Amino acid sequence: MLYLPPRLVQTAYAEVTSNVSTTSATYVDLAPLTLTLSTIGNTSLEVHYSACVEAVFAVPNIDFQLLVGGSVVMGATGNILSFGNPGYTSCPSMRYKSGTLSAGSYIVKIQWRTSTGTAQIRPANFIYGYGGLLVREVAV
Amino acid sequence: MPVLYQEGIRQTAYTEITTSTTTTSTTYVDLLSLTITTGANSVIAHFSASNANSADTQWTEFQLVLDGTPLRGIAYESVSSGNGDSGSIVYKTSVLTAGSHTFTIQWHIGPFSGGNANLDPSSSIGHASFYLEEVTV
């Protein structure tokens, strides 16, 4: 019998569980959304990121970028159309699959910035204050 | 030589809106639902939607519900009537008890702007899809 590694090797998940905000116009870590995976090699990483972000009395573009192993691999933006409370949100998302990776430790993280004002994700206030990061190591 | 793959995904389930669906409700009502029988494993839920609103500055909210308990949600706004927006959820549960579990997507519009939210898969922008996978890793 030949035992092969599972096609879905592992999954890791992180989400925003307390209110977070940024006023930074340059990218900073969206702190809860960092995952470190030790991979078996000859596999890929699939990344699924979804979020719902608000602005505070501003109508910014709120940008996100995905980093794998220290390199930016993808970005997404959410434009806030008007300000107020509640409902003035945007829900950008990203889906990514890496090339074949060698065995090792890989850090997958989300960073964010805002063009003006304050960007925030508030799970303590609203069920739609949400940011989730799922990483899957796959052998296919 | 026989080949044995170790289990990583035990099952998947999928549903989507197939006909134009509208709500004027300002409280959550069911949109999509899947019931699966799982082992003592986690389930990853993927949901995405894109819809139009009939009123200016109207917003649409969705929430993911597991066995009657709301878990996570999204909300987005259309700047003017006829426009829309989109959003998605990805969520991994903790290890569930083995047995039957119902995952539901509910939605409603905001209470102030009136009108309706419409998911029309026959249009170029409308969809709502819901995918579950039971995973052992």
Question: Helices, strands, pairings?
Answer:
The complex is a heterodimer of chains A (140) and B (137).
Chain A: E1 2-4, E2 8-15, E3 20-22, E4 28-39, E5 44-56, E6 61-68, E7 71-79, E8 89-90, E9 93-97, E10 104-114, E11 118-121, E12 130-138
Antiparallel strand pairs in A: 2-12, 3-11, 4-10, 5-8, 5-9, 5-11, 5-12, 6-7, 6-10
Chain B: E1 3-5, E2 9-16, E3 21-23, E4 29-38, E5 42-53, E6 58-66, E7 69-78, E8 84-92, E9 99-109, E10 117-119, E11 127-135
Task: Walk me through the structure.
The complex is a heterodimer of chains A (140) and B (137). Chain A is mainly beta and 140 residues long. In chain A, 0% of the residues lie in helices and 62% in strands. Chain A has one domain: Jelly Rolls. Chain A has no helices and twelve strands. In chain A, the strands form two sheets. In chain A, strands 2, 3, 5, 8, 9, 11 and 12 form a seven-stranded antiparallel beta sheet that branches. In chain A, strands 4-10-6-7 form a four-stranded antiparallel beta sheet, with no helix packed on it. The radius of gyration of chain A is 17 Å and the shape is elongated. With 137 residues, chain B is mostly beta strands. Chain B has a single domain (9-135), classed as Jelly Rolls (Sandwich). In chain B, strands 2, 3, 5, 8, 10 and 11 form a six-stranded antiparallel beta sheet that branches. In chain B, strands 4-9-6-7 form a four-stranded antiparallel beta sheet, with no helix packed on it. In chain B, strand 6 and strand 7 (69-78) form a beta hairpin. The mean pLDDT of chain B is 90. The interface between A and B is medium-sized, with 33 and 37 residues. Strand 1 of chain A pairs parallel with strand 1 (3-5) of chain B, so a sheet runs across the interface.
